[in-house]
Amino acid sequence: MTISYRNFLKLFMLVAVLGILSPGSLRAELKIDITRGVVEPVPLAVTDFFGEGKGEQDFGEKIAGVIAADLERSGLFVPIDKKAFIQTGKSLNVLPRFGDWRLIKAQALVQGHVEMTVDGRLKVEFRLWDVYAEQQMVGLAYFSVPSNWRRVSHIIADAIYERITGEKGYFDTRIVYIAETGPRTRRAKRLAIMDQDGENHRFLTDGTILVLTPRFSPTLQEITYLSYYNDIPRVYIFNIDSGRQERLGDFPNMTFAPRFSPDGKGVIMSMAKDGNSDIYKMDLATRKIVQLTKHSSIDTAPSYSPDGDEIVFESDRSGTQQLYITSSSGGGAKRISFGPSRARYATPVWSPRGDWIAFTRIFGGNTAIGVMRTDGSGERILAQSTPRGDWVEGPTWAPNGRVLMFFRQEPADKQGRGGKTRLFTIDITGHNEREVVSPVDASDPAWSPLNP
Amino acid sequence: MRFKILSVIAVAGLVSACAGLGGGAGGAGGNYAPGSQEDLAVNVGDRVHYDFDKYELKQEARYTLQQQAAWLAANEGVTITIEGHADERGTREYNLALGERRAQAAADYLMVLGVSKSRISTVSYGKERPEDPASNETAWAKNRRAVSVVK
Known about the structure:
The complex is a heterodimer. Chain A is mainly beta. Helix content of chain A is 10%, strand content 41%.
């Protein structure tokens, strides 16, 4: 880690929207409709950003690499091998020779320019071109400290994704998760954080204390999670900038399954009282607590709707785990999951767009990650356990509500070996499942909002 | 009677281990300090087991807890934490809640049997601390448990 997170978060200034260079034509514009099932990926050329000096050229090459990798992982783009490029270097900065790019079947072209300013900042410009329409689709410039070149790259990838798909990007984001090491009987679990592409990884806790289920604040550099500090399981808040950990409230019993409210001003969680778990919300400023469910069943895993008006949670009040929605001020709960009999539904998470609820389903010895509409209709399974008998659990939404992350845990053998746990992403269409590579075993992922 | 056999084996192993400790006061069935975790585990039984996704106490579990209540009555100064656990076939939050239910079910029965509430606390570890690390029925049955731990 070379940059502090405080620096990481305040280094950007959009300096300019670059002027349109091309004369333009009347061809239909390049567009990807990502709401359809299988999308034929768009061939895209990301050229090394041009720089006058050696240092600037190095940055230009690395920035192009990160942009291409982000767009490739989305499954919507196929970066063309650089070796096939006909036009390179400085001439691109004048105007692309569109014929050269059509020849290698590129539909979109990304080129840019890197410059170290006299005050030691990195200035990065880029333009996205529609090769067939011969038109500039977007052109922007950014200033940043040089160490922040990865963030600049992700922000450019987001701009490209947004311009072509019409949806917000999700590349300038981070993942907090539980890093797992050691034997299964005394697994060491640490809070860890990394960029969505696995870079800038760091551990936030040292593994001496069991921690579980971290969730990002929508507004602050904070994480709420469950910690077994002093062997007393309670909900905590971790400040990413300062490293400070604070127990939330002074409850006599176990508190768990926390999540922030969409305005970041409250936390919703379960508390077990006399063995029975109900759902409570706490106002972070006043520390006032309101009980939202009161039932002899297990009520847990609450998640707010993005407008904050409703809460989806799981309860076994019908006999097995099912999903329910209630008002965020409490009151009657309405069941929304009605799958195959004996199917259990758990860990509901409301999409940031409000349109879907993701869940873990346990059914007939298999587990799956799926989505359903907020009224329970339109259930779709996106990812399932393999015939090897692994276990999938714990969906979390990318901030654009188009991609989900979850974890897979392989079964252990008779001696308890194996049991590897890894993170994966999948599109809401059920396509493009990809592993998110982590340095050690990983579970309980939570996707951050777009970086501020 | 699986427990009896296990106990005998454990006693055999621990007796030799304890031989050099200079004659700690022996319990009824082994050379353990009365009121110690070893005494509870070997001479009484420190854990009970549950069916899949259940927290009701089975006949065998009730018997073990009756022995525990008698043992607690004989060892007045002892307080315990009951640790509730689940097997790995459940989601994380649900298993935490299930482990809590299991621990509380055991605690409630001990209280019914006359153990003071002030001597019992509970904690759930969900699926985080399996006793047997394998992914099969035998391991899962062992892992669905509530363990009484001497504080």
